[in-house]
UniProtKB/TrEMBL annotation:
Protein role: Component of the signal recognition particle (SRP) complex, a ribonucleoprotein complex that mediates the cotranslational targeting of secretory and membrane proteins to the endoplasmic reticulum (ER). The SRP complex interacts with the signal sequence in nascent secretory and membrane proteins and directs them to the membrane of the ER.
GO BP annotation list: SRP-dependent cotranslational protein targeting to membrane
Name of protein: Signal recognition particle subunit SRP68
Gene Ontology cellular-component annotations: nucleolus; signal recognition particle, endoplasmic reticulum targeting
Signal peptide from the UniProt entry: none
Keyword RNA-binding: yes
Cellular localisation: Cytoplasm; Nucleus, Nucleolus
Organism (species): Caenorhabditis nigoni
Any single Pfam family the record assigns to this protein: SRP68
InterPro entries reported for this sequence: BRO1_sf (IPR038499), SRP68 (IPR026258), SRP68-RBD (IPR034652), SRP68_N_sf (IPR038253)
Protein family membership: Belongs to the SRP68 family.
Region described as Disordered: spans on this chain: 575-618
Keyword RNA-binding: yes
GO MF annotation, one: signal recognition particle binding
Length: 618
């Protein structure tokens, strides 16, 4: 009895562990070992290696149960409250869970790249369940122990709730995922408010931002009418808030909701003088997507958002056209009737071209909003819009719709006025004022024609973005530009405005050493005012070719002055004549004279000439 009392008092007197910031430990490991670049394989290897090192260092290794005549059975050593003698033991639970989570993410990425590998989904779910098991065990140990403080318990609870929510989210158990993620978000928000550490606060808030998209998706899937317009509108707002780097699951959910909305109803189109029922699911989804896009455009605040909407819808339409073309090709080989499919394909072509032109118009608005823009850029964009609208009238079946033909003729005239305006602005920027003035007059005539045609088609449903107010604003811009061009032309005629070539002649940046023989004008006052310097020489100097390994005599040969040796040569010649014996008539004495003469001839070179100058005679 006394021993039990002593053990209890010792247990009560154990010191408390310091605070363990679970999220900070996880984030530091992820950022330093692969997840900064999304490399889950590297992160999984790091977690496995760290666990092995910790088990060996802390003597917390797994065991094998050996039985006679049977293979050894692996027995995992689980973490429990009695085994925790140090705060480092919590890393076993953290990194066991992280290792399983990394394995699940590897399987998820493989499944997204190769959808045919459906078995990867089961391995992903199993890995997430094991991660939840380790995270829940960690939470249980921390909650039951009195040696851990409140922040550590809250972080362990939030981490386990987040892991349960992610497992339920990937398992598509939306209700359970929503509850777990809400709990994790609530705990992290309270921790962010309670802490004074800015680093921890930013980590907690960042985790809340990560949880928000999954939580919203769970709420949308739990809703009773996922195909409702209000829910779709909220989804589009969420995608716009997330931006380009957001979660791809939002786009997937939008596609699924559109598909579910279109599968339950019939879609009928009217094109080419006939009504056709669309049976293909992809084509129905695209047609409904364009209807939804018209609603979503009213919520877009910037041209870039409109560009993203049109680009997504146009890409889906292109895929649907390819699908319908394959069906037509297959049915044509079977000698089946393809009239309805041809009509659907022509209608999809019309949607694609109209969406492409609308995307170009959004690009034009975005270009106008920028500070630095050139008229040439807008000119090319308006050319593309006009060409597309011309092709719309040539689409098969468009001739049966009189309103469409008239509307797109007006659209062509409408945007021709804008193109003419920016063309004249381009000529004005190039100092071609006469051409610019003529084009401005042509712009006014085009504006007048477009206004007259636009008034006749007020009730046309195809006229949406083209308004008379835009034409009146363009007219005021043309009037102002005409006045400035007229003034610039008069100034150029008077000589007050110099052309680019004249400016280049007066403002010459060549150094003075290169233009010594030229007369150059330089305005000293303007140079002093603009703090310009007169270049004397170009620094650093230009490179000149030189030999790779120059030899001394090759460079100094022409700079050597040879001494005058005329008097020495005369004396040497006299000495040579005195030493040479006279020739005899006998042939026997000719040999020595011959050798002596050869020796004398050998000394007549440069060595013979300088013999005796410095070292004397031999």
């Amino acid at each position: 009895m006394t021993n039990d009392v002593e053990m209890k008092t010792e247990q009560e007197e154990l010191p408390a562990f310091p605070t363990v910031h679970v999220l900070q430990v996880v984030k530091d490991a992820q950022q330093q070992h692969g997840l900064r670049h999304g490399d889950y394989a590297r992160y999984r290897k790091y977690c496995a290696a760290k666990l092995e090192r910790m088990r060996k260092a802390m003597k917390f290794t797994n065991t094998h149960n050996c039985q006679k005549r049977r293979p050894a059975k692996f027995v995992k050593k689980w973490l429990n409250a009695e085994a925790i003698h140090n705060v480092q033991y919590l890393n076993f639970g953290i990194f066991e869970s992280e290792r399983r989570y990394a394995e699940a993410m590897i399987d998820k990425i493989t499944l997204e790249d190769n959808p045919e590998k459906s078995r990867k989904r089961f391995t992903m779910i199993n890995s997430l369940r094991k991660a939840v098991l380790h995270a829940t065990n960690l939470e249980k140990i921390v909650q039951e122990s009195d040696r851990f403080d409140a922040p550590t318990k809250l972080e362990a609870q939030a981490y386990a709730a987040w892991m349960r929510g992610m497992c339920a989210f990937e398992s598509r158990n939306w209700q359970k995922a929503s509850e777990s993620l809400k709990l994790a978000k609530t705990v992290y928000e309270k921790l962010a408010e309670a802490t004074n550490n800015t680093t921890l606060s930013s980590l907690f808030k960042g985790r809340c931002r990560e949880i928000q998209p999954q939580l919203r998706l769970c709420e949308f899937n739990i809703a009773e009418s996922p195909g409702a317009v209000g829910t779709m509108t909220e989804l589009m707002e969420l995608r716009m808030q997330m931006g380009e780097g957001g979660d791809s699951s939002v786009d997937k959910l939008i596609s699924e909701m559109r598909a579910s909305a279109t599968s339950a109803e019939f879609v009928t189109i009217e094109w080419g003088g006939m009504k056709s029922t669309v049976d293909d699911d992809k084509a129905k989804q695209v047609i409904q997507e364009w209807k939804q896009t018209e609603i979503e455009l009213a919520q877009c605040q910037t041209p870039k958002e409109r560009m993203a909407l049109f680009e997504k819808a146009t890409a889906d339409t292109r895929d649907a056209i390819d699908r319908i073309s394959d069906i037509i090709r297959r049915k044509s080989s079977e000698n089946a009737d393809t009239t309805v499919l041809q009509s659907i394909k022509a209608y999809l072509e019309f949607l694609k071209m109209n969406g492409t032109a609308s995307r170009y118009l959004a690009i034009i608005d975005n270009t106008k909003s920028e500070k630095k823009n050139k008229p040439q850029d807008l000119l090319r964009l308006y050319d593309s819009v006009i060409e597309i609208y011309k092709e719309v009238s040539e689409t098969p079946g468009a001739e049966y719709d009189k309103n469409l033909i008239e509307a797109f003729e007006v659209k062509v005239e409408y945007y021709r006025a804008f193109r003419c305006f920016y063309m004249s602005s381009s000529y004005s920027a190039l100092h071609k004022y006469s051409e610019a003035a003529a084009l401005f007059d042509r712009t006014l005539s085009r504006i007048q024609e477009a206004e007259g045609k636009l008034k006749k088609l007020k009730s046309n449903s195809y006229i949406t973005n083209e308004t008379a107010q835009s034409l009146s604003e363009l007219r005021s811009e043309v009037d102002a530009a005409k006045i400035s061009v007229r003034a610039a032309r008069l100034a150029a005629a008077a000589g007050d405005i110099k052309t680019d070539s004249e400016v280049a002649k007066t403002i010459d940046e060549r150094p003075l050493l290169e233009t010594v023989n030229e007369w150059r004008q330089w305005n000293v006052r303007e140079s002093l005012r603009d703090k310009k310097t007169i270049p004397v020489a170009s620094l650093p100097p230009a490179f000149i070719p030189m030999p790779n390994k120059p030899i001394f005599f090759d460079l100094a040969n022409f700079h050597l002055t040879m001494p005058d040796v005329e008097d020495r040569l005369e004396k040497l010649q006299k000495d040579r004549d005195a030493q040479t014996p006279k020739k005899s008539g006998k042939g026997g004495s000719a040999a020595p004279n011959t050798s002596a003469s050869k020796e004398g001839e050998g000394q007549q070179g440069i060595s013979g000439m300088v013999t005796g100058w410095f070292w004397g005679k031999k």
